[in-house]
Amino acid sequence: MLNINNLSVENADSQIKILDDITLNIDFGEVVYISGSNGSGKSTLLSTLMGDPQFKIISGVIDFKGNDIADESPTNRSLSGIFLATQHPVELPGVSMKQYLRLIYNLHHKEKLPVFKFREVLKNVAEKIDYPKELLDRNVNEGFSGGEKKKTEILQMLLLEPKVVMLDEIDSGLDTKSRKSIFEALKIYKNENKKTIWLIVSHYDEIKEYLKPTKEFEMVKGALH
């Protein structure tokens, strides 16, 4: 389970409080959908769960599978099976897509897959979301469009097979065809991995048709309702 108890968070620099006494308990296999206006704290919640140093926990507990992970690094959280598809993916100039994806795949799956075998895995996953082949020959997100960056986030998710999937407005900036292919891939992943925890932030209801939330909340001024 992922248990968030009485979590309050502030901006690490300005010390302005953003999240106020959030409590949210999510069992394996549940899908939680969070709506809310811009600036209400939705993205901050996901970023805090991922360990973003921009946000400081004032009080509360983040318990994942019986362990308090509030002080864990983003890397350790990722290796434990937590994944965040961010709203604004960063570019990594000079870092090869194929090398980067193989590195994180091997780290998360605790194996050293030979290059030729990984390329077959990558090819199969990329086809599920109609991922443009030419992007795999470039550097990570360098010069990518907003939609291409979002597709790259989902490509990573499908490769890593996380236990907790957090999607921060993954549907924004995508054309209709791209949205549909990504939603279909997420739906298949959900059906094949029935114990995965989902935490979805979006302004659009379309994704709900595919992932069927078990719980829905609205974030208002840093509080869940």
Automatic annotation (TrEMBL):
<keyword id="KW-0547">Nucleotide-binding</keyword>
<dbReference type="InterPro" id="IPR027417">
    <property type="entry name" value="P-loop_NTPase"/>
</dbReference>
<protein>
    <submittedName>
        <fullName>Fe-S cluster assembly ATPase SufC</fullName>
    </submittedName>
</protein>
<dbReference type="Pfam" id="PF00005">
    <property type="entry name" value="ABC_tran"/>
</dbReference>
<feature type="domain" description="ABC transporter">
    <location>
        <begin position="2"/>
        <end position="223"/>
    </location>
</feature>
<dbReference type="InterPro" id="IPR003593">
    <property type="entry name" value="AAA+_ATPase"/>
</dbReference>
<comment type="similarity">
    <text>Belongs to the ABC transporter superfamily. Ycf16 family.</text>
</comment>
<dbReference type="GO" id="GO:0016887">
    <property type="term" value="F:ATP hydrolysis activity"/>
</dbReference>
<dbReference type="GO" id="GO:0005524">
    <property type="term" value="F:ATP binding"/>
</dbReference>
<dbReference type="InterPro" id="IPR010230">
    <property type="entry name" value="FeS-cluster_ATPase_SufC"/>
</dbReference>
<keyword id="KW-0067">ATP-binding</keyword>
<dbReference type="InterPro" id="IPR003439">
    <property type="entry name" value="ABC_transporter-like_ATP-bd"/>
</dbReference>
